[in-house]
Amino acid sequence: MREEQVKVAKSSKRFSWVNTDDLNDGLNRRGKKIENDLHYSAEGYKTLGKRFAASALKLIKNKPSKK
Q: Which residues contact residue 20 at a Cβ distance below 8 angstroms, ignoring those fewer than 6 apart?
């Protein structure tokens, strides 16, 4: 499934893939160490937001103009 999602993201300037695989390790919001957790680490959520924002800006800049 992952390969297909990445393929779709690469198929057009209107799509984007944001990798999150490395965001599940670290400390949770209570300071407990987590590894490969279901939820992201506290720092992981911050990184996720930055990646989403960077991806959104890239998509906005690549938006084709209407003719």
A: 40, 44, 48, 51
* Angstrom distance (rounded) from CA 44 to CA 28: 9
The domain segmentation of the chain, as residue ranges, is 19-67
Query: How far, in Å, CA of 29 to CA of 60, rounded?
Result: 32
pLDDT, position 49 = 98
List, in sequence order, every beta strand (DSSP E) within the chain. 26-27, 33-34
Q: pTM (2 decimals)? A: 0.74
d(CA 66, CA 50): 29
